[in-house]
Model the fold of this input.
Amino acid sequence: MPKLPVLATLVLSLLGGSSAALGDDAPSPEHWIQTFSRDWGARKWSQRSPRTPTGYMRAADDDSWRLRMQALQALIAHGTESIPALVDALQNSEAHERILAAQALGYLAPEVPGGPLWQAAKHDKQAAVRLYAVDALGMQGDTGSSVDWDALRKDEKNRDVLKHINYALERGDAAVDAAMVAKLQNLDVSTIDTAIVGKPAPQFQLTSVNGQDISLADFRGKQNVVLVFVYGDT
Amino acid sequence: MRKKLSAFADLDTQLLAVDPHEVYSARYLLKETGFSSDDFHYPMLMDPSLTVSAKYGVAFQMRIHVEVSNRPATFLIDKQGVLRYAKRARTFADRPTPDQIVAELQKLR
Done:
């Protein structure tokens, strides 16, 4: 089975660009959205359960998440230039495109017009779109405090979207952190999916809930590390 | 996993958790449940840029609570920084037990 991230790389080489350095020939935000949409939309979720009859986990051999990450990184690297295409995708397209668009707009939030995000948070039929639009409204920061959160809460029936409204309010007036967005903008996409047993583990530097900066390098020569990726919800 | 923290300490091991959200969701949930971040017995690292989740091959693979979020996974990195064990969940409940982790750690000695 061909690896679809390779397809993206072929497209890039045809255009003479590279995802690491955006030149005039780099694929447009529209192109990234379309490439992602075709690839992601062609796969299904597996692991059906009573609560998630349409599946909740990607199959183990489904690597479409890699193209999704490349697309997200490219869209954020394009910065404000991506906003028109993302707002368009938020309003006009298939559910999985609207979900990616809402998520991406969060990272660009301080520059995003609030109207389309509000419409998506209030009226989109997909809870996932409303959830990410709620996140994005919060990520706008000061402008987020002009959002009528009570109006959003009033008719919302999905418990996860309601939780995210509370998370947005927890922010106070804090906009999305520019240094965090820069990490995503500067991600070297060749490092995606490079945790391989027997090889050096990918480096990281992250901040804990209580504000402590921790790097993998801190433990070198001192301790083993058990690294557990959690869902991050109740 | 918390019960094994003393076993981890005896094996020169630090447990770290990675959460793909900004800090606000964790803060809200701590308040709601009456805990403070001091109650965490191990660091809960936040990865909202998803760059670490992507490098470790877990991003965008599970949607339990509507979001397109991380596949649960456990990795073991030795003192030379080499990845020695990786378990990415196939289903929601598919995770190594704390005893299984301790057994893997003992192999590193």
Summary: Chain B has a mean pLDDT of 93. Chain B has one domain: 2-107.
